[in-house]
Amino acid sequence: MVAPFRLDSLHAPSPPAPPPHEHGRHAVHSHRRRRSGRRLALLVALLVLLAAAAVFVGVRLTAPDAPPVVTPVGHRTVSVPAQSVSLPWPTTGQAAIAIPSIGVDVASGTEQPAPVASLTKLMTSYVILHDHPLALNEAGPDITVTQADVDDYDNDTVDDDSNAQVAVGEQLTEQQVLSGLLVHSADNYADLLARWDAGSIPAFVAKMNADAAQLGMHQSHFADASGVDPGSMSTADDLLKVATPDMANPAFASMVQMTSVTLPVAGTISTYTPLLGLQGVIGVKSGFTTAAGGCDVLAVVRTVHGRPVLLLAAVTGQQGPEVLAQAGLHALALVDAVGPLVGTTSVLRGGQVMAHVSESGRSVDAVAATSVSVLTWPGVTVTQVFHPARHLTDRASRGARAGTMVVSLGTQHVVVPVRLQQDVPHEPLLRRLF
Fold it and tell me: Scanning 32, 60, 239, 386, which has the fewest C-beta atoms within 10 Å of its C-beta?
């Protein structure tokens, strides 16, 4: 017999049930995988932490320390005791002395502005060389003589003023005109320079007065470029305030040492400055008018304590015969008396502690490399200014430059290296890390 058809026979038979221990095996494997994952994560985290620590330590150990702190020590000034100084002042007129290297100027007494004749040309030259600088032995630009310049010469000849002949169209260099002005005191050259520089004499005189004010010549007022006008007034002390920068200019200083100058039309013309070339006199300028009397500004170089020193003296208002020679002799007597009064003072000694250099709470000394002495005058004050080195680092070793000490008085400026006596102390390792 055929077996009857059953609907449930169309369903697939159910798979056999797994053995009783199969579920437990899968659970064990899953637990082990989770535990291995945690270990790996911890290991990675530890490696990252160690790497970060290594980077941190490396950065801390290789990073430069903050620059050392440099603290200057010692006195900033050295004062020379004052004392009474007696000088052979003339009994008439006014006088003053100046020692530029020491920054000293001393007047004969209370001064009043008075006509100063051709000493006015010291300011005229100052303005010209300020506006049109010349190097030593440089000729400078050409200046063409005009009819107005010739008219000036003619007028000076009639008035018996000092002059140098010129011709229309003549070409003179700036150096030639200045030499004629300073050597032969040519009044017409002063006006020629004034017109060339400023376009007119009044405009130039305004420059003269402005520059005089800047130089501290508070008792000076100029009315012309030559000094013929008695309204050009000054004092002996004020005149040295312009003579000092004039003599510091090599072009000017070379001209006032000349006893004569040769020019295209004027020919060879000689100096009026008395005593030039005698007893070390190297200039600078003399002047005379009836209103001013005999005037002279004199410069000499004397050896003082083994050093060449420029000494300046101004004498104005001298009367009587041979007034220029009289003014020059008074000025020479003054500079001869000044030289022995110049002293020398030790202001710094080699090895003297100038600064402390501190790092990480510890410090080392920085000392002057050499000794310094300067020329002095009773009552002056020497200044000392310490300048720390810009690039001093925590790695600086013994002998490195920690800064400089600048010693100053007048035109004396001495720069002294200041060096470490020991290596800059390094920051301890633990402090660098933390």
Answer: 32
